[in-house]
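Batch manifest, entry 17 of 40.
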Amino acid sequence: MQKKSQSKLLLLVLLSLMLLAWGCSDKAGAKPQAPNFTLMDIHGNQVSLHQFKGSPVILDFWATWCPPCRMSIPELIKIQEEYKDKGLVVLGLSVDNPSQASNAYLREFKKEYKINYRILRANHRVLTDYFGYENPAIPTMFFVNADGKIVDKIVGFNSTGVKRALAELLKR
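Output type: structure tokens
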């Protein structure tokens, strides 16, 4: 009888520990906060992610020399145009080397490709904040909801994934 009692007690303790561990862990589906940044755009103006709090934001890490990045530009132009009235903000974060692609070059690139969203200069800190210490793959898009939480991340050119992530981003 005592052995049965000890088994029940052990089971109860194990169950309690499991519930405690589950309660202390990150909640399933919890969305991480998007790291804030302040970067310069290609016109020399400071832009921070925080200034768009309350709006959904797509952060597109890209470069002018990257063919898949160029392929995603028309889609981002269309998305910015179609959803700007819903408050959507698209920010292109260029990872181009400033000594090889000046702001003047990026302004011409923007004009040539008819880009209708802001282009910022990514720096080492924002790359570390978003990608850790790994080399970032580009293009990579982060979808940040109006509460400043990252709801999705897409690496590479993936039109279907962008549509799915955009639907998640815009639902409220």
